[in-house]
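Model: Ready when you are.
Researcher: Fold this.
Model:
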Amino acid sequence: MPDVSGESLGSGLPQIPERPNEIRRRLILWACLIATFMAAIESTIVATIIPTIVSDLGGFNLFTWVFTIYVLTQAVTIPVYGRLADLYGRKPVFFFGVSLFLAGTVLCGLSWDMPSLVVFRAIQGCGAGAIQPIAATVLGDIYKPSERGRVQGLVSSVFGVSAVIGPSLGAFLVQHVGWRAVFWVNIPFGIAAVVMIAVFLREKVERRSHRIDWAGSLLLLVGFGSLMLALVQGGTLGLATVVALAAAGVLALVALYLNERSVPEPMLPLELWRNRVIVVGSLGNFTSGAMMLGVSAFLPTYIQGAMGREAIVGGLVLGAMSVTWAPASFLAGRVMMRTSYRLVAILGALSLVAGCGILLALTPADGPWWAASGAFTIGIGMGFCSTVFIVSIQASVPWQQRGAATSSSMFMRFVGQAIGASGCGAVLNATMSRLDPGAVGAVDRLLDPATRSAMAPAELVHLTEVIAGSLHNAYLLATAFAALTLLIAWQMPARLRP
């Protein structure tokens, strides 16, 4: 295993990041946490205001693209930014990404119709692709492997805080200022992060000419972009369009593989995937990400539709996952110091399986507390898994590959989330169509408290059984992803630890 102190480089290049003193290191940590919060809150806060945006701008048929285009552009640019950070240093890539994100943020607040908002969200996503992975890479540079577990716990807590603050802040701003201010609220966070990184992070990167793999970048964007578009929007696009997108994606990825084998500085270094720790960590991020979003995307629907509770109850149940995620990340850092990456990964995966098992046993009569216990257990598993996978990956490569390795792992998590949400959604819709094709259109009434209370008792019981049974099958798929995570965790090399 290579030296991970940041001082020894496999290629011999003098790209040695200066080890900051404790004060500067804490300020850099805060800058990375602020940047991560800015990108994380973007999804939760926008979800709150989308009905207001649609009522103002119109274009209801395009509103799903407000979310989809952001996820797509963010995901497909992550590996590109990671490789550029290895070639030119973390700071310039981070500055570019935050600047592009803030430019898109300003433009989103100036949107005049739904198509313009979708275009500006794409710009936002292209910038967001640099923020979280580069921030995580910077933290991997300035903290030793033995310290990264604690740091990842702080990063995880940021996601939990954003999940809680985002909806409330969005609702407050819409009511008192207007929906455009919801986008602009991120501007001071971005400026603060850029200033702090500029002042306190010091890099020593050898200034030499690089041959940028533009062909690889383009093929990567086309390949994964086409496949993710076909996956995420497969239900709304025609069969011919989905097949064409999938074929284009596969051909682009084959061409990418051939290209990366021949260029001197590939955008996606293939040797990373010969590293067992990277393969295990990336695949683990993929399956755990699929499980997590497959659960979280539909758990509030179960609370509202099957149990008949208010929307706020569904939010609180899902929040149980965020409550345990951060403490579990801190605990994972301590456990892996005394044991091994493998044990922590297995414990986390077992918690994922146990949490999904609780949700599989869920019935409408059980109530929100039983559902919250499942989310609570899954949060523990995600805290363990997300921490051990990223820490082990960053510890397995030298400085000049850490950006690509971190970004590749995060990219796999995004792809997994897209597959988890779309896969569980497909199972949900297919089961509902099999149980009662007419119920698909009637579920909207089940989710609205006013129309639900006006339903005939027999119809209410029938629709409740349909949606509960359909969500049960969706959670079967989520459980399968959790079981795959456990199998992958067993493949982590034994006795490795920070």
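Researcher: Now this one.
Model:
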Amino acid sequence: MEDATQHPLQSCPQCGCADLFIRKDFPQKLGLLIVVTAGITFLVLAANPHTFYLGAWALVAAVLVDALLYCFVPKITICYRCRAEFRGIPINPTHEGFELSIGEKYRNG
């Protein structure tokens, strides 16, 4: 018998919904913290003409951290209806990123 986790999902195993999307498996609050920290660091350092370049390097460092995270963080599949998250399974190539028009269909249900 084959293992079901070796096949991409066609529908949600929890609620049966056929509408699924993919996204990076990264906590959004951590991403926001990185951006806010880099922005505040830049503003503090850019206030002094002698440390402006350090502020610019803080922004460059934030971009590099973001790029590295983007490369190494895996993708997950999420159900529009029940918001169940499925990790460790192959990504279905027919699924795309979150689509607002589809999300609106399931917003209150």
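Researcher: Key takeaway?
Model: The longest strand covers residues 20-24.
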